[in-house]
Amino acid sequence: MVALTYGLPQHNLRYSTIFTGKNHFFEKYMKYIEKKLLKKALSLLLLPGLLLPLLTSCGLSQNTPVQKTGFFFDTVITVTLYGGDTKENESLLSDCMDLAEKYENLFSDTKADSDISKINSAAGDSVQVDPETVKLINIGLAYGALSEGKFSITCGALTELWDISSKADAYAEKGDAADISIPSEKEIAAALATVGDKNVKISNDTVKLLNPATRLDLGAVAKGYIADRMKEYLVENNVKNAIINLGGNVLTLGTRPNGDEYIIGIQKPFSEDGEAAFTLNVTDKSVVTSGNYQRYFRKDGKLYHHILDLTTGYPAETDYTSVSVITKDSVDGDCLSTLFFLMGEDWARNYIENYEPAVVAYFIESDGEVSCVGLLKD
Question: Whole-structure pTM over 0.70, yes or no?
Fold first, then answer.
């Protein structure tokens, strides 16, 4: 997900809004912001995935936000702390970025020396990994078991085949003129043959892929887990008020310093100006959105997006354009937003009523209609 706060003057920060969505075009959007700022001072539009309040006050005070941004997991990551000593907060923010780097080096399948890359390249041999890698794999497997085969962290070969992110980049730059190919049915079938949670064998701190061609991809679970670990670290260091944004996985700590709730804006799908479909007021909770507008391209008039249905091998076909989930822990929101998008509103309602009554989900349908499942509780 991505997020954006309006660039309000410092004394109005309590009114700022965070927008959730996803976007990986960081440099392109940085240029976009610069152009917009030249035209209209307070119109920081779009940028799903970027938490970027403008800190314009002349002096620093106890309530002045201190913020740090990094780039990990191909995503803009921003942490904002409210209150406390500024220098101490800056140190805590650096530690949060160190945590992001640590987990990227464990969980990313694009880092050659990461635990996941070592498992994927082991040709079926057992690989000893960090205990937290095992923990996250188990979380992914647990949610995969609920999905009736539609979701699995063993989808790496299929996601690599589709390469949606690169194709989305090309489409964003050139539109219909982009040279984009669609995998053949034969290629998709071969990749699907490597998918299956049964292919993962865990013994203590070792992981083995029983099918050597299987590839793990923790993209649907990693950012939520990291956000939770950052929040845990900040709480241990007596931080009371903060916003953690890992590419749109927005996790709030406490309230704003004045006691107000955080206002989270959910982006209208396919909106080019960052228009909000609706807003949510949350305290000490996570908001995660999954949608078909976040990474996509069109080919011969058909929309192809990054959320793959592993029962077909193709991008999921659904009546929804996005699902936003409110949870206590961001890792749960990360997984459930994808599951709810794949499984639909009725499945989500049954899940919430029978297993997670504290979860709330908002579905935006293709016609723009918004429906809510669950009841937001304190």
Answer: yes
